[in-house]
Amino acid sequence: MTGVLVVVAVALVVGRGVVTETADLFMLAGTAGTVFGVLLPVLGILSITGEWQHRTALTTFTLEPRRARVLVAKCLSVLVAAVLACLLAVLVAVPTTAVVASVQGVEATWGLEAHVLVGWIATMVLLTAEGLALGLLLLNAPAAIVIYLVSPMVGSFAAQLGAGGKAVAQWLDLNSTSDVLMSDDVTAGGLARLAASVALWIAVPAAVGTLRVLKRDVT
């Protein structure tokens, strides 16, 4: 999965550079985010559920009985991978932007505001954390992946069901509420909606899932 992330990051950024006529650094780097939003959470899910699916958890917890330490190591490594993947996309986008500007004869746009970059990376980290949380809660890769992929569709569908459905989506759809992280106008309401969706999709599932892993009998 890590290898696929690297290949996808390079391929998407360079591919967008080939077909676009605009030399915009953040636009090119952000192209990789369309796939990162799927692959990074799946990487998190597989990192958590792999041992339970393949029944190697007994060996792991025999070698390291402190289960919490194992979970922290798994989660941190995946979250760090999410940050590095975003930075890789930006790194690849720099020469691609220069080449596009030269070939197309247009002016390159190098402006990359710090809060937008940090917000984009934070969004990818939150989506990855959602994958980790679902993996912890379910300990079943197919079920966790399906729920992760379907939940944004449910949120979009709910938003079409009138004012009530739209209100629910605005508060509980993490893909929508995380937009505040890249916004120039960060409001208390936006942060409150983000906190509610983080609690629903990350904090509560991660807490319940962690307790489940710490207490579950391993066979």
Q: What is the terminal-to-terminal distance?
A: 27 Å
| Percent of sequence in beta strands | under 5%
Mean pLDDT: 91
Give the helix level as a range of percent: over 70%
Output the structural class: mainly alpha
Number of strands: 0
Q: What are the segments in which pLDDT stays under 50 over at least 5 consecutive residues?
A: none
* Total of DSSP H or I helical runs spanning 4+ residues: 10
- Which sheet architecture does the biggest sheet show? none
Order of helical and strand elements: HHHHHHHHHH
Gross geometry: globular
Return Rg in Å.
19 Å
Overview of this protein structure:
The chain is mainly α and 219 residues long. It is built from 10 helices and no strands. The longest helix has 38 residues, at 67-104. It is globular. The model has no long low-confidence stretch (mean pLDDT 91).
Which characteristics define this entry?
mainly alpha; 219 residues
What's the layout of helices and strands?
Elements: H1 2-19, H2 25-31, H3 33-53, H4 57-63, H5 67-104, H6 114-138, H7 141-159, H8 162-172, H9 174-177, H10 188-215
Helix pairs in contact: 1-2, 1-3, 1-5, 2-5, 3-5, 3-6, 3-7, 5-6, 6-7, 6-10, 7-8
Quick structural overview:
With 219 residues, this protein is mostly helical. It contains 10 helices and no strands.
